[in-house]
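question for whoever is on the cluster today: can someone run the full assembly for these? two chains, 772 residues total. i dont have access anymore since they changed the login thing
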Amino acid sequence: MQDFFALQKQKISAFLLPFLEKKRKDLKRTGDMGGGVCARLKTFVPRGKMLRGGLLVLSYGLFKPGVPAPVIQAGAALELVQAGLLIHDDIMDGDLERRGEKSLFYEYAARAQARKLNRAFHVGESLGICAGDIAFFLSYELLSGLDLPAGGGAGGSTRFGAGSHTRSGAGAGIGAERCTSAGTIPRLIGLVSRELSYVAAAQMLDVYRGAQDRLKLSENDILRLYTYKTARYTFSLPLLCGALLARAAEKQLPRLEKIGELLGIIFQIKDDELGLFGDSDKTGKPVGSDIKEGKKNLYYYYLFGRGGRTGHERLLNLFGSGQAGKKEIEEIRSLVIGLGIQEKINKKVDQRAARVSRMITQLPSGRGGARELLLELLRYNLKRVA
Amino acid sequence: MQDFFALQKQKISAFLLPFLEKKRKDLKRTGDMGGGVCARLKTFVPRGKMLRGGLLVLSYGLFKPGVPAPVIQAGAALELVQAGLLIHDDIMDGDLERRGEKSLFYEYAARAQARKLNRAFHVGESLGICAGDIAFFLSYELLSGLDLPAGGGAGGSTRFGAGSHTRSGAGAGIGAERCTSAGTIPRLIGLVSRELSYVAAAQMLDVYRGAQDRLKLSENDILRLYTYKTARYTFSLPLLCGALLARAAEKQLPRLEKIGELLGIIFQIKDDELGLFGDSDKTGKPVGSDIKEGKKNLYYYYLFGRGGRTGHERLLNLFGSGQAGKKEIEEIRSLVIGLGIQEKINKKVDQRAARVSRMITQLPSGRGGARELLLELLRYNLKRVA
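^ ran it for u. tokens below:
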């Protein structure tokens, strides 16, 4: 499984780096800043795992053999989208580090500081906003330029005739049994755009909640945020994109969407767990940073629900105070285990794992064991902490 | 001319408002923030003049009669892009007002402040970043969903056969003599994306220069910024989009691109002039705000070139100090006239006006006098100040 993703990452990089180099040269026409963003993306993007790009390739493989060039290009587009979101997120969260280096906006801020520019930190944030925007625009340029053969998805046959024009609306599968070439690119772009608007809307909620100390949330509120901020975008979207490119039958799409949501929620809960119990050397982010930033995750929810009245004030001081040190994090860990929260959350994860596992086995097995790879990904996620 | 733009604005609004209302409801699935952005865009977008959307319709009219629905939809998409750019720009420039109301990020900041949230101003900036992103994503959703009839641009005939698949790369016109239906949407999206990456790159340069007190720029540096930050995006892009939708002959595209650049540079220079000599009641922004913000415009360039050594230090104090009051602005106005700068800049404008006027007369006259409207727009721009 990890080999598969490493291989796709290699392929995506091999496509993306020359593209970014070409854009670097092209953007120089505007002056000497835009090219720099492309140069920076060339080192930034390959430092990620390229989970989304890899998943898109995997999904294609469920329905079609081989990995045609447009599939890699679409995977690269998703990785640029991810870069844009991370660049903007780091500004919002004030994260100075990302992927083991300075975050992009902070790099600009540090440079502005070194040159003694006015309001250097704000200059860094402003340049970061533009850089994130550029990553989005480049991503759309890649999607719009997919070279799909006439009559079908990437590498598909031409049995539906050259470019018969059957659009079925972004996302929903109305009308056409299978998507045809003329409509695939617009449909793909519609799907990506709709999903990204959900991500940005969910991020707003996260920002807004993060700035409030005392906040009454339901478990549903939290799971909805997980769904729209992470799960659908990280899992459902690549799975759907791959299926559209492979011209999978329409009935597969809602199934893949749901599989993505379940995998994504498990992934996010495990991420929270890692944030609390993980080894910061391996996770790349300091233990307890979620707590320090006041992130309202499932642990937060159950702690407040079960902490009792006296525990409540104590927790408020621990969460979101920005002051939580080693001792305080230890205290929260003990509470999470002692109050049976860890067990309760694990149970929720297990229920979802069983359900998604069943759903995955209903997918076509795919060439090169694509379906098995998805099951492996699930298992890998489940044991990330243990 | 103003009637034409007012009418297109009406049509674009009539399409855009129900779309935003639909998205407002849809985004509610993510929680209670995303819908609010759409509600806010519903009042924000119609307060603009919708120059870009109107120009797109005008350009379509050069080549085809009528105004089919997809042309209005594409115009609406450009207005959403503009909204996204303005929302992000206001964060970067720290502009608290826009179109006579609180700027979007500042509205969020004020609300966060009223609710005593932590770091309220930063919360406002963060929510503004997301809101701008959402405007971009909605715009792409509109572009991807253009319902073009088989075989041609919006409302075009089918003489090139149903959806024959001839893509000719984003922007450049390689291969296909005319754009066909299958390729029109991807090509349009590629064109928009490429141009937006130029805008963002140019904006970076503007931010970076704005933060430097002493900066040696050539006239070319400034004109290049005008070209990529404003001119091409505001004029060339809508003209090209309209022509693509009308399936204009390929040879028209470079002509429209150049016309757009020239019109746009004139527009920008006149905007600078308004910023210095205009009536703030009419322009909607305080006189001299460019000077206060240290914007490096053509006036800035000539003032420094002609101010002499003693004038230099004085100018440095006036520009970018954030302190320029009425008296200082009066002083700059006198210098601009006394040193013959106004005259020199007017001459540059006139040269360009003559050139673009000649180029416009080479365009087809269009139904409903589209070509004449473009000439009127030029004349209107030229006399905006006088």
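summary bc i know u wont read the tokens: The mean pLDDT of chain B is 86. The beta strands of chain B are 97-98, 101-102.
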